[in-house]
Q: What sequence folds into this?
């Protein structure tokens, strides 16, 4: 359920699109950022309810003896097929949603909030936000970025991840705003333009935000 006490912006994009770079710029402008992917990784090791569900679905081998997620094991158990990945997502995404809702309640005085997530539309988490920004770049640029930053991933593995995610065209069709991160248009200027719009009470009201009265 959407919290209309503060304006909430979702930023999404496929692997290598540069959404984290975009979010870092918004953070530099003083906007609180919620990183859904990092939060999911934290919850998978610290949320006891979620840990129990993952063990039930994928076996006790999903965790090491010291309670850390066994990522090598999970690559085979949870990411070997789309069906298994969907099962994991069905366990993790609701817990991330609860965690995010609590985080929002702690930041109601902010001008607006940003939530970063790769699978924003796929997980339906966009429904709890007021508007969505899609960050895009040509696939060849995205693959090159990921390959440079993560030498352990092969080009085939990167392509497999791309194939499981929505295309840029799908995200852009569903988003309210778009950022092109290909180098053709200055990235920072696009972000500043959006920051100006998102800070405008009139735009926030258009999306149904009703700021609590201050005394």
A:
């Amino acid at each position: 359920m959407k919290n209309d006490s503060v304006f909430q912006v979702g930023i999404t994009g496929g692997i290598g699109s540069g959404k984290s770079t975009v979010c870092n710029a918004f953070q530099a402008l003083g906007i609180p950022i919620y990183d859904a992917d990092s939060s999911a990784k934290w919850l998978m090791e610290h949320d006891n309810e979620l840990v129990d569900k993952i063990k039930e679905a994928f076996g006790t081998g999903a965790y090491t003896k010291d309670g850390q997620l066994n990522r090598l094991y999970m690559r085979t158990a949870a990411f070997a097929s789309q069906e298994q990945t969907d099962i994991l997502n069905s366990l993790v995404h609701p817990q991330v949603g609860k965690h995010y809702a609590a985080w929002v309640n702690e930041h109601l005085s902010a001008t607006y909030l940003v939530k970063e997530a790769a699978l924003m539309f796929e997980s339906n988490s966009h429904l709890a936000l007021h508007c969505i920004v899609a960050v895009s770049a040509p696939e060849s640029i995205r693959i090159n970025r990921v390959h440079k930053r993560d030498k352990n991933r092969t080009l085939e593995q990167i392509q497999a991840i791309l194939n499981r995610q929505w295309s840029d065209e799908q995200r852009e069709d569903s988003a309210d705003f778009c950022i092109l991160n290909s180098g053709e248009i200055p990235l920072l200027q696009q972000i500043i333009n959006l920051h100006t719009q998102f800070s405008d009470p009139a735009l926030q009201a258009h999306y149904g935000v009703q700021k609590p009265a201050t005394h």
